Amino acid sequence: MNYCTSCTPAPPFPDNGFLILHNLEENVTARKFLENADGSLSIPYSNGKELASLLQDLHEQTNTSLIKGALSRNPEQPLAYSPFSYIYERVIYKDLVSLINKGEFLSFFQPIVNLESGQIFGYESLLRSFNPPVSPFKLFDTAIKTGMQSILDRRARELAIIARSNQVKHGIKSFINFIPSSIYNPEHCLQHTFKMVKQYGVSPDDLIFEVVETEKINDMEHLKSILDTYRANGMKVALDDMGSGYSTYEVLENLKPDFVKIDRHYITDCHQDSEKQTFLKNVQALADDLSITVLAEGIETEDEYTFLQSIGITLGQGYLIGKPEASPAGQEKLFADMIL
């Protein structure tokens, strides 16, 4: 694959025209259909409100999982077919789709420290919208539901690289999230990212690309090819949410990430929970065996910090250490000065 339409912004829907569908049950609605030469069916609509109502009716009355659809002013010339769910979600959440396409975003910084020294090791880059403000979860959830994750994921990578290029000094790492399903062909889809790294003078060795916590790993070989492509270009990789269900020993041994993050569930009150303590010690032993650096996220108390430090966890992140900020200025002092 040398090109994919998923990496380009979603085209605007015509204010009036036809909803063109394949594999639709003809008795699902009383509306009149126009049968096209290719066997598809066209349903006319005159405005956005009518289109939303039509899609809602179809969504409620039939199994749309196999239906492909398109919107066009010409009933016999759809621009491109998509899963019905993508069209439905894009129309229902049109304001969020517009934001994903051309909204204003910033890349925030959340500090990550070495637990032993308290010194800043790096920052996680976190995408934030500010006009209007929308939660990151809602943004990425909508992007996935509408098939626009490649657009938002690529934008997040771009802004993270630009932000660190003029605000973070060499040697301090950047953890940049990515969604594996947004990268169809690593050699092609990541070329833009690699060009930006060169364009903005960022050292590849300072970049760590991290599988996001919401992503389910369905194709391990595909993910491995993505990680290998990052590594081949001088970057490091990380797996998120150790303990959430997919980061098993076999997975870690197969993928051999440079870093693994422990799910925050195991961090909360770890200083007084024996089961969590056993899990954390086992993870640390496993990581030592595979030469993987462990990062504990979600640290909110000094007791949690002290326990994690005592069992040899290398890196930490959380509100105790620092909240996401638009600038890392002032955060690059020793964390040890604040708590020790």
From TrEMBL:
<dbReference type="InterPro" id="IPR035919">
    <property type="entry name" value="EAL_sf"/>
</dbReference>
<feature type="domain" description="EAL">
    <location>
        <begin position="89"/>
        <end position="338"/>
    </location>
</feature>
<dbReference type="Pfam" id="PF00563">
    <property type="entry name" value="EAL"/>
</dbReference>
<dbReference type="InterPro" id="IPR050706">
    <property type="entry name" value="Cyclic-di-GMP_PDE-like"/>
</dbReference>
<dbReference type="InterPro" id="IPR001633">
    <property type="entry name" value="EAL_dom"/>
</dbReference>
<protein>
    <submittedName>
        <fullName>EAL domain-containing protein</fullName>
    </submittedName>
</protein>
